[in-house]
Amino acid sequence: MSAITLRRASTAPTARGSAQPSGYPTVDLLPPSVRERRALQALRGRLAMSLVLVVLVIALGYVGSILVASAAADEATAAEDERVDLQSQLASYAEAAQARSSIESVESAVDTVMGSEVLWAEQTRAIEAALPADTALTSFSAATETVVDETATPFTLTGIVGSASFTVTTTTLPDVAALLDALEQVPGVVDATFSSSSIGSDDLYSTSGTVTFGQDALSGRYGTATTETTTETTTEEAGS
């Protein structure tokens, strides 16, 4: 065995208790197999630590996915509850829509039937008020007519909504022309005609005739008359 000579290296003094390098050089005398085993153990330790970190990351990702799935499930449940609630509300609105449709159907039927309404009591009072002072209205029989679209001519009246036959009595022979002129001044009356005049046993003159009513005689509470009035008002407002 060959001799190995080691020399002490000169070092500066250090404080007591502090780490100080050895005064002699170190020599690794371990066999290569030991060094390889230690290196392999260190590598295994690092691999184990890496494996733990990978497992931890996977576990965290799994937990995160569970939390996200749970939140998504809660949102889906809330959305489903909202959908059911909206469907319930729509069902109630459907009943309201059906009721509204029924109301509109009834209103349309009323407009169709009552569109040609004439307030005959008011027309009778207006005619009585237009008669001369010595003239009494003894009979008034009115009938509503359906408005028919006709071509206006000098010999025909259009837009007729009703007509009435009347009888008046006077103490003297009436002025028929003045009587008819007075009747034609009544709002809604478009024409008045004379039929006959006779004197009775009580010395009173009885005069008969017919009065024809136009669109102005309509009550305006239903149907076409109301619509036309609304349209005219809207047009006037837009023009102003």
Can you describe what's shown?
It is a single chain. With 240 residues, the protein is an alpha+beta fold. It is 50% helix and 16% strand. Strand 3 and strand 4 (205-213) form a beta hairpin. The longest helix has 83 residues, at 32-114. The protein is rod-shaped. The N and C termini lie far apart (130 Å).
Overall pLDDT: 76
Give the structural class: alpha+beta
**Helical segment count:** 4
Q: Which percent range fits the helix content?
A: 40-55%
The run of helices and strands is HHEEHEEH
Using the alpha-carbon principal axes, give the shape: rod-shaped
Strand content: 15-25%
* Tally of strands: 4
Radius of gyration: 57 Å
User: In order across it, which strands form the biggest sheet?
Assistant: 1-2-4-3
Terminal CA distance reads 130 Å
**Uncertain stretches of 5 or more adjacent residues:** 1-11, 13-19, 225-240
What about the largest sheet?
Answer: 4 strands, antiparallel
List strands and helices in order, with pairings:
Layout: H1 32-114, H2 120-130, E1 135-144, E2 162-170, H3 176-184, E3 189-199, E4 205-213, H4 223-239
Antiparallel strand pairs: 1-2, 2-4, 3-4
